[in-house]
């Protein structure tokens, strides 16, 4: 099945050619992709800049403009690797192992922290202060019971599927056969995938450990309210 970049830039492009006024639809389609990419990058860059600004070392030595420029430059250099000859393979690797697993892990941690660490009662009070009314009972049931169970099940399923799936594979073009064939990632590719998975999720436990150690050794730290 066609997916990813092939679906967006090949299959849809061929379908547009068979439509009336293909030039118009082509312009509108790729303009839509441009806007989607810009909108996604705004959220991604903000998600990177915001926690970096929380570190006093960064906020004290770099202005928001300089930090934004450095982050965008870094993203540009990473994106340039996707335009090289093997760029599609790097793109597939990032798409398969950097986005889905980390996003699922972060969302699972957020739901658990909000529901059981921060407390659903305190969160309900925050919602009431913002909206003027408490959230519906259905939302509380979803946050406390349904969402954690579903996310945890998906997380376990993802890990089990990854373990039972054996060596990670990718689709490569075979010029002799004239079609795509399934191949296993080389050793350096598997090491990079492991580093990619660790780097995308390690920020959560490392930040929690850093905050815990910093708060614990701070003199006169007040006790946490119940």
Low-confidence stretches: none
Shape: globular
| Strand order within the widest beta sheet | 1-2
What is the tally of beta strands?
2
Helix content: over 70%
Oligomer: single chain
Helix and strand string, N-terminal first? Answer: HHHHHHHEEHH
Mean pLDDT: 83
Helices, by number, come to 9
- Give the distance, in angstroms, between the N- and C-terminal Cα atoms: 52 Å
What class, by secondary structure content?
mainly alpha
Hey, roughly how much beta strand do the residues contain?
Answer: 5-15%
The main β sheet shows up as: 2 strands, antiparallel
Radius of gyration: 23 Å
Describe the protein:
- With 226 residues, the chain is mainly alpha-helical.
- 75% of the residues lie in helices and 5% in strands.
- The protein is built from 9 helices and 2 strands, in the order αααααααββαα.
- The protein has helices at residues 5-17, 22-54, 56-61, 64-80, 87-117, 120-131, 137-164, 187-201, 203-216; strands at 169-174, 179-184.
- The longest helix is centred in the N-terminal third of the chain and has 33 residues, at 22-54.
- The chain is globular, with a radius of gyration of 23 Å.
In short:
75% of the residues lie in helices and 5% in strands.
Tell me the layout of helices and strands.
Elements: H1 5-17, H2 22-54, H3 56-61, H4 64-80, H5 87-117, H6 120-131, H7 137-164, E1 169-174, E2 179-184, H8 187-201, H9 203-216
Antiparallel strand pairs: 1-2
Helix pairs in contact: 2-4, 5-7, 5-8
Key terms:
226 residues; mainly alpha; two-stranded antiparallel ribbon; 9 helices; globular
